[in-house]
Amino acid sequence: MIKFKEARINIDFFKNELYIIVDMNNNNQILILGAGKVAAPLVKYLLRKKYKITVASELLYQAELIIENNPQGTAVEWHSDDINKLHTLVKQHLVIVSLLPYHLHLLVCKACIRNKKNMITTSYQQAGMDELHSEAYRNNICILNEMGLDPGIDHMWASQMIDTIKEKGGKVEKFISVCGALPSPESLDNPFRYKFSWSPTGVMKASSSHATYLKNNTIIEHDASALMKNTLLLNFEGLGEMEAYANRNALKYISLYRIPEAETFFRGTLRYKGWCEVMDTLIECGYLSEQSFPKDITTYAELTSYLTKLENTKYLRDHFAQKMGLKTHSSSIMSMEWIGLFSSAHFSPSARTPLSVLTNKMLSKMKMLPSDKDLIVLNHQLLYKLPNGTKKLLSGTFKLSGSDNENTAIANTVSYPAALGAELLLQNKIAHKGIIRPFYKEIYDPILKQLKKDFNFVFMEEELDPNKWSSNW
């Protein structure tokens, strides 16, 4: 039995339904696992709202730093291999927010199910979670995944737009969604036209992953060798022409978005034009490989020549361009030369795979500077048909800029949906149980409204000429 010491219970009747909101003044309410850069806005928001929270991190000082001595917050040291402590922490809280790396979510999910606690994650639903749905449902708990930006806000806004179309009797024929976390235009000062707020490894791996989508009723699959060669071009006011490459497996979202009639369904990652060409070259020559190379290779030029089976001479740059079928002044060659992949400089001996050599170099030369700002761009395009046969094109664009490299748009857009979701769970306002994502109106409607009201997020929607839809999509 759970005892609520000095609990205040408010009972209100709305439309013959009983809602009980428990304000637990002396019990910890929310456990946040992880204290990285994304955690700070979430923690600060919850503390402003007077929730009692615990932040658990491998590095205790990081948790203490974001709590800022607030008496409502507690910092604890916790390591992911300490399962017993995880269960103890979970048992002491009502809602668990996991900001941990993707591969640890299943571990936390099992602890939440065992202790009958609600949980939120901001990243993609980890494989294996679906198998726990029945158990979570029986325990009357909600494991709410994909509550960040992408995935997260993209799902909620798309679901809202789709439901609005369905209310008119319309059917969505084609759906395209793209999202990018980018440096703002004024911070573009390198030929890659990209910068990193933290480790580039995740971005690089996503740039070489397998992707699947639906295009004109045909399933399209791209492996790493084809991913960056098949891009979608879009134009944004103030940003110009940008490009998107396919983002993982989009097919599973057709049923989750409840639009089985869709002929085209594409989810993509948005970048400034030029990025995909450079990534394609790096993939093709082997720089995204995680296979170790011989120990006698210690310089960037030696590694580049080893990967391409070229002789390491002072003409390596030109020979590389010729072998790859590129012009010496192409974006790929200029970018590789700028970052130093043709140089005789030595890289760190701890880097033993091409990917680690590349990401270390990227982080040293492409890191967000204190004065840099980031930019979030999210765009949905829905081509739909009304009952009278009229076709319409609904476009939605969301942009948000950060203040500097500490107060970033990416941190705000990932963390605020999770914080608002935690509030809904504390207030017992999510009826759906089991392993779920935020496709339901009871979730997306209040969260999108609050993002607009409290955080000034602006979701711009407009009807466009349906003839503007690209004929080959």
Could you explain the architecture of this structure?
- The protein is of the alpha/beta class and 473 residues long.
- 33% of the residues lie in helices and 24% in strands.
- It has helices spanning 39-48, 60-67, 83-91, 105-115, 133-138, 153-167, 201-206, 224-227, 252-256, 275-285, 300-308, 316-324, 331-339, 354-365, 409-426, 441-455; strands at residues 8-14, 17-23, 30-33, 53-57, 73-77, 95-98, 118-121, 142-144, 171-183, 211-215, 218-222, 232-236, 240-246, 264-272, 374-385, 391-401, 434-436, 459-464.
- The strands form four sheets. It has a seven-stranded parallel β-sheet with strand order 5-4-3-6-7-8-17, with helices on both faces. Strands 12-13-14-9-15-16-18 form a seven-stranded mixed β-sheet, with helices on one face. Strands 1-2 form a two-stranded antiparallel sheet.
- Residues 1-26 have low confidence and may be disordered.
- It holds the Pfam family Sacchrp_dh_NADP.
- One of its GO terms (cellular component) is cytoplasm.
- This is Spermidine synthase.
- GO terms for molecular function: saccharopine dehydrogenase activity.
